[in-house]
Design brief:
The protein is an alpha/beta fold. Helices cover about 40% and strands about 15% of the residues. A six-stranded parallel β-sheet has the order 2-5-6-7-8-9, sandwiched between helices. A three-stranded mixed β-sheet has the order 1-4-3, with no helix packed on it.
Length: about 290
């Protein structure tokens, strides 16, 4: 990893990334795409060492409280967080100033900061978002090799449920010819329903590939799934969107099951939920601190 002083930390939509790059090794990671202009090796993590100070300056200037989001591009709980601790420091700032948090990860390291998450949720609102792709831990270790397997993430969801922290699951990507089966969709949904998640995000049953991401993905397919790359090339060519041949069937199953269990599953509805900062908590006006 290498350290930099960033010029800013919050986007116009109040999102932040304290790291650039990732060491989780997910074979399908869109953040590897060249359009994001990461000009260093993806596993050589760029650490924005002044992120907590930038965040505190930004929150101090804000006139209204809002939700702060992190994890959309690079996981805030990758391996270097154990020693660098920037995510924890930023959460402490968010907690101190009474803002809300929507944090996205694949890692069980999020449980390390459970007391902070609970404090943020007590004062405002905290939502933890967890990505799930396959119920098969053996497949998970091939497509997401350096992060805890699905079974552990499902356990994390249940722990957060028991601790009163709301959760949202990102059910994506569904990789054609690998995990695009009704059995996998149903098993993932059952995990989510058991954990009483607030919402499950799906952008269609498939994967997106573009320059930078596609090459890495195809190299991994050649290593672990001989012949599958050729199926992708024959089926999708250089298309950005690569939907499962079973997409319609799987989306019907997804929509019907979520509706039957009363779980949010329309992306616009879920994003509104993630971005909504509560004006009141337990019947009382939120205080500044």
């Amino acid at each position: 990893m290498h350290f930099v002083n960033a010029k800013g930390i919050l986007s116009a939509s109040n999102g932040m990334n304290v790291y650039r790059g990732c060491t989780h090794g997910c074979i399908y990671c869109d953040s590897r795409s060249r359009c994001y202009h990461i000009d260093h090796a993806f596993e050589d993590i760029e650490v924005k060492q002044n992120a907590p100070q930038l965040l505190e300056d930004a929150l101090r200037r804000k006139r209204r409280k809002c939700m702060i989001s992190t994890g959309a591009m690079c996981d805030p709980y990758m391996h270097c967080e154990e020693t660098v601790g920037l995510t924890r420091q930023c959460l402490q700032v968010i907690d101190r100033y009474g803002f809300g948090l929507a944090i996205q990860t694949k890692s069980d390291r999020v449980l390390r900061d459970l007391p902070l998450l609970k404090s943020i949720h007590q004062k405002a609102k905290c939502v933890v978002q967890i990505t799930l792709t396959t119920v098969d831990d053996r497949l998970c270790r091939l497509i997401e090799p350096n992060v805890c397997p699905t079974s552990r993430r499902a356990q994390v969801l249940r722990i957060l449920r028991d601790e009163g922290i709301p959760t949202v699951v990102w059910f994506c990507p569904v990789l054609p010819f690998l995990n695009d089966t009704p059995e996998n969709v149903q098993a993932i949904l059952s995990m989510c329903f058991e954990a009483k998640v607030q919402g499950i995000l799906s952008f269609g049953m498939g994967v997106t590939l573009r320059e930078g991401d596609r090459e890495y993905f195809y190299q991994a397919l050649d290593r672990h799934f001989p012949g599958v790359k050729q199926q992708y090339i024959r089926t999708f060519g250089l298309d950005y969107e690569c939907p499962s041949p079973r997409s319609d069937q799987l989306m019907r199953l997804f929509d019907e099951q979520c509706a039957a269990h009363g779980v949010m599953h329309w992306p616009d509805e879920i994003f509104r939920y993630l971005q909504a900062f509560p004006e009141k908590n337990d019947g009382e006006q939120l205080t500044m601190f």
